[in-house]
C-alpha cells in the first residue's frame, strides 16, 4: 500500500539487470589483455561467449588474458562459458587465461575446482585460499 499521492514502485526499477562489460583490448608482448566486468550468468553468458569468440577469431596473438578483477558475479553458466572459451582458444592455438579473480568470483571458481586451470595452471598461494 502506498501513501496518498505516491506512485507504486515498479519492481523492474529496483533491480538492475545483469550486464557483462568488456574493456578495450590492450596488446603487448605477452599477448592481448581484456578486462571483463559485471556479471557472467544465464542472461549474459551468450553475449560473453560470442564477444570472446569474435576476439579469438580476429586476433593473431598466441595468448589472451581476461582480467576479471571487476567481475562481480558468475554462476554455473558463466563458468561454463569461461571453460568453453578456453577450449575454443586452445583449438585455435591461443592460450586463454584469467587474471585478478577475487572475492566471490574466485571462491566459486576454486569451489568448482577450475580456478587453477583457468588461471593458467598456477595453483593459488596458501595465503590466498
UniProtKB/TrEMBL annotation:
Chain ranges of the STAS domain: 34-129
Record's protein name: STAS domain-containing protein
Organism phylogeny: Bacteria, Bacillati, Actinomycetota, Actinomycetes, Micromonosporales
Organism: Actinoplanes nipponensis
Source organism, top-level taxon: Bacteria
Amino acid at each position: 500500500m502506498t501513501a496518498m499521492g505516491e506512485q507504486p514502485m515498479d519492481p523492474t526499477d529496483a533491480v538492475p539487470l545483469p550486464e557483462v562489460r568488456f574493456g578495450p583490448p590492450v596488446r603487448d608482448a605477452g599477448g592481448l589483455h581484456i578486462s571483463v566486468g559485471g556479471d557472467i550468468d544465464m542472461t549474459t553468458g551468450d553475449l560473453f561467449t560470442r564477444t570472446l569468440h569474435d576476439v579469438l577469431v580476429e586476433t593473431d596473438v598466441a595468448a589472451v588474458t581476461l582480467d576479471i578483477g571487476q567481475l562481480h558475479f558468475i554462476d554455473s553458466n558463466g563458468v561454463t562459458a569461461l571453460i568453453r572459451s578456453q577450449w575454443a582458444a586452445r583449438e585455435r592455438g591461443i592460450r586463454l587465461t584469467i587474471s585478478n579473480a577475487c572475492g566471490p568470483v574466485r571462491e566459486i571458481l576454486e569451489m568448482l575446482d577450475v580456478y587453477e586451470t583457468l588461471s593458467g595452471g598456477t595453483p593459488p598461494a596458501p595465503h590466498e585460499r
